[in-house]
Hints:
Elements: H1 3-17, H2 24-30, H3 32-41, H4 51-56, H5 60-63, H6 82-91, H7 105-123, H8 127-145, H9 157-170, H10 177-188, H11 195-201, E1 215-217, E2 224-226
Antiparallel strand pairs: 1-2
Helix pairs in contact: 1-3, 2-3, 6-7, 7-8, 8-9, 9-10
Amino acid sequence: xxxxxxxxxxxxxxxxxxxxxxxxxxxxxxxxxxxxxxxxxxxxxxxxxxxxxxxxxxxxxxxxxxxxxxxxxxxxxxxxxxxxxxxxxxxxxxxxxxxxxxxxxxxxxxxxxxxxxxxxxxxxxxxxxxxxxxxxxxxxxxxxxxxxxxxxxxxxxxxxxxxxxxxxxxxxxxxxxxxxxxxxxxxxxxxxxxxxxxxxxxxxxxxxxxxxxxxxxxxxxxxxxxxx
Length: 228
């Protein structure tokens, strides 16, 4: 058996048996051969079964069933373990640039993979992993803010940090973390008014007119000029 066969068997069993939700235990008793293959061969940097890698390769409808609706009251105890963080960063050392620039689909895939690794470790309670996750994700989001689709987030640093923190805490096994983050910022940012608009509403201390009244467009260059 190889990885593709294990995923194929798992997809087929989920379609046939139609569970409302599933987890490691369900796979163990329902798709025993795939379960054994995953435990022996699909592991992350820390030697743990890599269920994220498994779920990411399932059919989209099956991904949504993974641990769906399962809640726990167990609170993770915070701790600091630099080894866990270094294990991830060392493995992906040559790909950390993907948080600043993504050349192709492979870069996007790797960036998402690194993000999920860091997020999972942070969710276990590793405070150092959470700090590092936030740093990398903030770099990625800062790049998004330079595009027209996220310009309205410019200047809302505190609110942005709150939303990133929520995404890190709430992300579950449901596909791409980067897509989840992007959609969260798209939805939560719809009501934001660009801070530039607030500034233009202010009166100029020189002309005593609102700055928006002093906005002029250069016909030759198209540049917006503001006369104060």
